Amino acid sequence: MTKDPMDVTSSPHPSSRPRRAVDSGPWPAPIASEPLHATVVVPGSKSETNRALVLAALADGPSRIVGGLDARDTRLMRDGLRALGVVIDETADGWTVTPPQQLAAASASVDCGLAGTVMRFLPPLAALGPGAIRFHGDDQANDRPMGPLLDALYDMGADVTVDANTLPFTVTGRADLPGGRIRVDSSTSSQYLSGLLLIGARCGRGLDIEHVGATLPSRPHIDMTVAMLRERGVRIDDTQPNRWIVSPGAIAARDIVIEPDLSNAAPFLAAAAITGGEVTVPNWPISTNQPGDRIRSILTEFGARVILTDGALTVTGTGVLHGVDLDLTDVSELTPVVAAVAAVAREATHIRGVAHIRGHETDRLAALEAELNGLGSSTKQTADGLVVHPRVLHGGDWRTYADHRMAHAGALLGLLVDDITLDDIGCTSKTMPEFPILWTQMIADSDEWSDRRIAAEQAEETRNDQVTPDGSAH
Ligand SMILES: O=C(O)C1=C[C@@H](OP(=O)(O)O)[C@@H](O)[C@H](O)C1
Ligand SMILES: C=C(OP(=O)(O)O)C(=O)O
């Protein structure tokens, strides 16, 4: 059953539903009995944190990282860098990263978990040292594409031992890696280009990379890599289409404060849009390289009101959700949340340009089709996206496939549809371990907001009752 977001009568009050402080295992998604009203502070950006860590490891001195994301993907990055010889000192105020004299000086093993940024950013660092570095990860990570990056590292002079062009593999590099001219097909992930660009300045001849595939996803993530390198003094000529020429030279150490993760803010903001409520995320950057910023225009297209003032982003649901036609090539990581919003919109939605997300944490197109249809939706995969036809939804199991963003999508639908249970909320620890707490807190804050509003209305009525028709008080 899809609940009318404006109908506050038929569902139990969330506080009357069992609320467990779980962080793994099955999770009954809490329903929103009222339009949500809350402020949610979102933790640091995964993409910015992991780039900052890698750049600090490659820099010419120690760097401080403040507000870095503490989640599985960034823990794996920190541990992976330590395996390559980097010293990372973590305190409550931030992290101090001290690069070694020689990266990957000795043989080591790096666990990539399911983190694309770890499996695509650290092998290039391993190519800068003589140690044999063994990369492995979760079973599901062995399905993620790696071939173009491994071929590029081989072309650049590293030794790569691999069975099936995926994890696991071993990279043995050299301290004097020459670099030079390479061609890479990055149509299956922008992360190959980012990983290579990150080490370009440290190669003897720099790096001249040309992307040769038909499509290039996540261009803002490549721009983020280029911008963060330039902030550290690296010279990059990107004036030719699909070509980046990185001059050899030092990468300057730099302290950084990490922005909130705008893609992880998306489910909370979408919650306001679909329940007809209002959610604010503070510390929204005025200008950013994070593609997740696109959530502002996406929710506006769906029909929500979106306002950025004084560094806070507020989304207000208007009670209307249109079907939309979206090309998400640049911001494919928003697809699961967008598909969930589309499933409760008024008209059909087309999502295009995201064929490569079949190689994300799971095949997201297949997963979204299966899980949305399992709740009664009519969703179909296309060659490069999804068509979502809204239907009246019913409760049921929502499989997450170890994918944090599938969990966000299931939680969103659970706000409006009774009895949706996610099979494992633990997967949200990949980029936001506090997701279940923040989500239930958002609902609890909304209940308090609505209690305060009712109390204010009652007080107002009492005041009015106490005033006689001639305006004098009883
Ligand atoms: O470089 C990055 O930080 C990322 C790039 C993108 O990867 P793809 O280009 O593989 O989609 C994005 O989806 C991922 O979440 C993070
Ligand atoms: C695709 C994603 O992650 P990864 O960095 O593992 O590729 C994602 O977070 O949506």
Description of the structure:
With 474 residues, the protein is α/β, with parallel strands linked by helices. The chain folds into 2 domains: 14-44 and 260-453, Enolpyruvate transferase domain (UDP-n-acetylglucosamine1-carboxyvinyl-transferase, Chain, Alpha-beta prism), CATH 3.65.10; 46-257, Enolpyruvate transferase domain (UDP-n-acetylglucosamine1-carboxyvinyl-transferase, Chain, Alpha-beta prism), CATH 3.65.10.10. Helix content is 32%, strand content 19%. It is built from 12 helices and 23 strands. The protein has helices spanning 46-58, 72-83, 116-126, 147-155, 191-200, 219-230, 262-275, 295-302, 335-343, 364-374, 404-416, 435-465; strands at 27-28, 37-39, 63-66, 87-91, 94-98, 108-111, 133-136, 159-162, 169-172, 180-184, 207-211, 236-237, 243-246, 256-257, 278-282, 305-309, 312-316, 325-327, 349-352, 378-381, 386-389, 396-398, 420-422. A 4-stranded mixed β-sheet has the order 2-15-17-16. Strands 4-5-3-14 form a 4-stranded mixed β-sheet, with helices on one face. Helix 4 (147-155) packs parallel to helix 5 (191-200). It is globular, with a radius of gyration of 24 Å. The protein starts with 26 loop residues before the first strand and ends in a 9-residue tail after the last helix. The relative contact order is 0.14. Residues 1-21 have low confidence and may be disordered. Shikimate-3-phosphate binds next to helix 3 and helix 5.
